[in-house]
Amino acid sequence: MIRDVHDWMNEVGGDDFIWYVKRLSGNDTHANGAHQAGPYIPKEFLFRVFPSLNREDIKNPDKWFDLIIDSHADHKNVRAIWYNNQFHGGTRDESRFTNFGGGSSPLLDPESTGALVVFAFLLDSSREAKECHVWVCRHEIEEELVEERIGPVEPGKWRMWSSDKSDQNLEAGFVARLGNSCWLKPEEMPPEWLTNFPTPIEIILKTISLRPGNGLNPDERLIKRRKCEYEMFRSIEEAIELPYIKKGFSDVEGFIVKAQTILQRRKARAGRSLELHIKEIFVEEGFKEGEDFSHQPESDLGKTPDFLFPSEKAYKDTHFSESKLRMLAVKTTCRDRWRQIINEADRIKCKHLLTLQEGVSENQFREMTQADVRLIVPETLIQRYPKLVQPHLQSLESFIGDIRLLNIVK
Fold first, then answer.
1. Could you tell me if residue 173 is inside a domain?
2. Is 315 one of the annotated active-site residues of the chain?
3. Is it the case that residue 166 has pLDDT exceeding 60?
C-alpha cells in the first residue's frame, strides 16, 4: 500500500492519468449540514473524463466507477452524475460524485473540510475514465508537496493536470469563461507586460480599475476583485508563456526551468494576492497606512503579522492601551495554517484571521476559539460554514466597523 503522497503522485502521474484537484468545501463534506449529494465537480471536467454523460436528452445521466482513496485505504463504487433538470422542466444544472456512504468516507468527513484532494482518473484506450485513485491530504506538508507539483490551489478554484496538451487547454478555457471582461487579450495588456511579467501590485491596481467597486461593501469588493484578478493573472500567464510552450524544448532541463518559473510565479501570486487586496480596501475605507494601520510591521523581535491597528508605533508604545490594539492575519486557507498566527503580536490576546476557506468543521472552529483566534470571512462565504459556527464569524465590513469604533480612524 502506498502511504507517501510523493510516491503516490509518481504512481498516478503517467500518460494514462488525468488529475482533478480541489479543496473540499463545507458543501462537499457536509460540514455545513447542506446535505449535498457529494463532492462538486465542474461539468467541463466531468464531460472530459466521462464523455458519455454529456447527454441533454437523458434526465440526470450517470455512470458508476471504482474510486480508491489511497490516502485512507478506502474503496467505493461511486456514481458520477449530471443533474440536468433544467432540460427537463426543472432548474438544476450541476455535476457531482455520490454514493460515498456518508460521513464515514474521508471525502465527506467534516474534519476534511478545507483539505486539498487529488482525484487521479485512470483512462482506458478510448481516453475515458475507468477508475479513480484519490489522495485526501492529511496535513499541510502533504498539501505543500502536491502544490509543488501542480501549483497553488485556492478555495473555490480547481486545477487539472495531464500530459495531454489539449487537456491543459481545458482548464485555461474554463477560467477564461468565468468572466470575459477580466480575461485580457494580448492587445489589451500594456506592452511592457508582454516582455516583463507585471508585479503583483500592478495586477491588483489593474484589477481595481476594472472593478472599482462603487456602491459595493468591502466583502463584495474583495470577492469580485479576487475573481477578476485570478482571471487576469491566468490570461497574462497564457499570453507570455504559451508561445514558448508551443515551440517545444530542446532538452529536459529547459522544460524543467520553464515549469519551475511558472510554478514559482503562481506561488508568489497566491502568497501575496489576498493580502494586497485587503490593503487596498483599507485605504479605500479611509485608513492611512502608518497612522491607522501598518502593513507587514515588526510587532516583536522576529515577528511580522500582516496588519497591525492602529500602527506599529502604537503597538510598541507601552503606554498605548492594549484594549485598542488589533492584529489581522490573512490566509487563503486556514485548516492547518491558523496555528501559525498564535504567537504573532504578543501584546494582542485575540488574533483576527481573514480567510477565504469555504468552511471548517465544528471541531476545527472550537480549537480556534479556544486559542483566541477570531475568524473573518467574506459575507458571501459565511453560509458555507456550519450553522452553529456562522453566528460567531465576522465579515470584513464588520471588522472594519469595529476598528472605527475604537476611534483609530479619526
1. no
2. yes
3. no
